Amino acid sequence: xxxxxxxxxxxxxxCFMLTGCDEVSESDRLIYVKPAxxxxxxxxxxxxxxxxxxxxxxxxxxxxxQEEYGEDKVIAVGIHGGALAVYSxxxxxxxxxxxxxxxxxxxxxxxxxxxxxxxxxxxxxHDRWSALVRSEIEKTSPFDITLNTTYDASTHTLQISxxxxxxxxxxCKLQLWLTEDGIVAPQQMPDGSMxxxxxxxxxxxxxINDLWGESIDVMEGEHAIFKHSIGYEEQWVAxxxxxxxxxxxxxxxxxxxxxxxxxxx
Length: 265
What we know:
Layout: H1 4-20, H2 26-29, E1 38-39, E2 42-48, H3 55-69, E3 74-80, H4 98-106, E4 114-117, H5 129-137, E5 140-141, E6 143-152, E7 157-166, E8 170-180, E9 183-184, E10 187-188, E11 194-195, E12 199-200, E13 203-207, E14 214-218, E15 223-231, E16 241-249, E17 252-260, E18 263-264
Parallel strand pairs: 2-3, 6-18
Antiparallel strand pairs: 1-5, 2-4, 6-7, 7-15, 8-13, 8-14, 8-16, 9-12, 10-11, 16-17
C-alpha cells in the first residue's frame, strides 16, 4: 500500500519530469539587472606652494574634511606649481614640477592656496571647500572604480589595473596620478616662519597616463579595464605612494578612487 506521503512524492516527481524538459526561451533564461549607482567620493585638487604662508591652513582643512567624511570619500592631491612653489636644487627639497605649473596655468591660478572640488567651476579658496564637498558627496555616481596596484621593488616599476563598472554607457576621460605622503621638506608657515621639517602629504609626483589622461568609452553593465605602468624616480618612497584615478568630463569629476601602492619585494 502506498501511503499519502509517498503519493505526494510521486506526484511531485511526475510534475518535475513533465516540466523539467520544457524549452525556456533565451530571453527568459538570463534577466539583466542594471548595476546600482554608488556613493560618490570627492576630489580636491589643492594648488599649493612651499612659500605660501596660508597653504598649511588648507592642508589642515583637508585633514578636517577627511576626518568628517573619511579618507576614502575626500581624496586630495597637492599640486605644487606657480610663483609660490619651489623647484628642487642642491640645497633645498622642492616639490614644484613642470606639470604642476601647467595645471596652474590652465586653471589660471594666481593666488594660493586655492582648490578645485570635483572640477565644479573654478578654483576657490579653502574656506569654501566644505560646502562644495558636502554638496558633491550627497550625490551618487554611475561609476564604481576598482584599483589594483603592484610595485616591483627589483625593477622600481608600478603596475596598475583600473576597473570601471558603469550604470550607463558613457564617453569621458580617465586620469591616473601618482601621489606621495610623508615628504619632509621646507614650508613657510602662517606666522611667516620657515618650517624645515614640515611633512607634506598627498603630493602629486607624476601623471601616469599623460597630463590630461586618456579618452575612454564604458558600456552599461560591463567592466572596462585599463592597464598602466610607471617607473619610479630615485627619491620617491614606494611605501608612501598611492594611485589616484578619476573619470571626468565637461561637467566635472564623475568618480574618484585612491589606492595605496602594494609592494612586491
